[in-house]
Specification:
about 325 residues, alpha/beta, Rossmann fold, 2 domains, 8-stranded mixed sheet, 10 helices, globular, binds adenosine-5'-triphosphate, binds magnesium ion
Length: about 325
């Protein structure tokens, strides 16, 4: 990674809550990071840690009763939280695209896939009908769909799950966005197709130099595709660093637990996974102090009293854990 990369996205102290009948669910509790052009950042963390809510907030797709209650999301110098509906529509699909876990979330069943992709292009760019058609065929080819002239005339339900996923990726990429947010883009697919789709995303990323936020449960995928990883726990980033930092020099006990609970990429055969003991945090009534403390083997007195500050370990490796906080004397 070069040092002089241009800043694309800057998230500062983002807070998102859901205001439910039972009370306020603090789904994202103040996360910050910078993403540069062409950079691929992974976000990992267990179910319910706030990964999707964070992504939806960037896209302006947060649904009620969810609300951004603090912080900023700056894209190319503009706070997208200040955008009106029209500005958000202009941004989505054009500057930022998202790939969802379920392709049917964003594919319209009553339009042919070709029309949908062409429409995405003509909505944002000034292109003729003929040019749009040619671009769609080109893009379908790029995402590995054989016989695109025929496929583009089909409806989403006529395609297999793998083909639909590819169509969704084509839809996300057709306007050459600066940023692609991929939220568990391959979990619904079988392993062979997963690998093909990842290769495809890497290819496109190299060609277009778009930045990617890659949300996944799969650390193997992270190692394969990401430059940098953020580990989320209970709505916060608890550790962030390069892939090497997180895999070989993890410092947060939750990251260590996560690594231990993941199947190894080089596992010869079935290996027992070590689940992290304890239950995830109740986001309605989070405990004081570090959210991971009740599950942490290394928990100290301070951990149940106060939230740990950030400790910068150098070279962008940052951890939020009291064990890493240097003592004064
Ligand atoms: N509509 C909603 N109402 C209330 N709480 C919600 C709602 N949607 C999400 N949440 C809460 O927000 C938190 C974060 O959810 P989110 O979907 O971002 O998790 P995630 O990290 O993407 O999990 P997964 O890995 O399962 O996709 C969860 O604790 C969840 O309970
Ligand atoms: Mg999610």
């Amino acid at each position: 990674m070069s040092e002089n990369r241009e800043l694309l996205l800057s998230v500062k102290d983002l807070r998102v809550s859901f205001f439910t009948h039972a009370g306020e669910v603090k789904a994202v509790g103040g996360i910050s990071y910078d993403l540069h052009r062409g950079e691929v950042m992974g976000i990992v963390g267990e179910s319910g840690s706030g990964k999707s809510v964070e992504a939806y907030s960037i896209m302006g797709l947060l649904q009620s009763p969810g609300r951004v209650i603090g912080g900023s999301i700056t894209l190319d110098g503009e706070n997208v939280l200040d955008y009106n509906k029209e500005q958000l529509q202009k941004m989505r699909g054009n500057r930022i695209s998202m790939i969802f876990q379920n392709p049917m979330t964003c594919l319209n069943p009553v339009y042919t896939v070709g029309n949908q992709i062409a429409e995405a292009l003509t909505a944002h760019k000034n292109v003729s009908h003929a040019d749009a058609r040619a671009a769609v065929i080109e893009m379908l080819k790029l995402v590995g769909i054989p016989n695109p002239e025929k496929r583009m005339k089909q409806y989403p339900h006529e395609l297999s799950g793998g083909m639909r996923q590819r169509v969704m990726i084509a839809l996300a990429l057709i306007c050459e966005p600066d940023l692609l947010i991929a939220d568990e883009p391959t979990t619904a697919l079988d392993v062979t197709i997963q690998a093909q789709i990842l290769e495809l995303m890497k290819d496109v990323q190299k060609k277009t130099q778009m930045a990617i936020i890659f949300i996944t449960h799969n650390l193997g995928v992270v190692a394969d595709i990401c430059d940098r990883v953020s580990v989320m726990y209970a709505g916060k980033i608890v550790e962030t660093g390069s892939v090497a930092d997180i895999f070989y020099r993890p410092r947060h006990p939750y990251t260590l637990g996560l690594l231990a609970s993941m199947p190894r990429v080089d596992a010869q055969e079935y290996e027992r996974l070590v689940p992290i003991e304890g239950t995830p945090v109740d986001m309605l009534n989070p405990p004081p102090g570090c959210a991971f403390a009740p599950r942490c083997e290394k928990c100290m007195n301070i951990c149940i009293k106060a939230d740990p500050p950030e400790t910068d370990l150098g070279d962008g490796h940052i951890v939020n854990c009291w064990m890493e906080v240097p003592r004064d004397e």
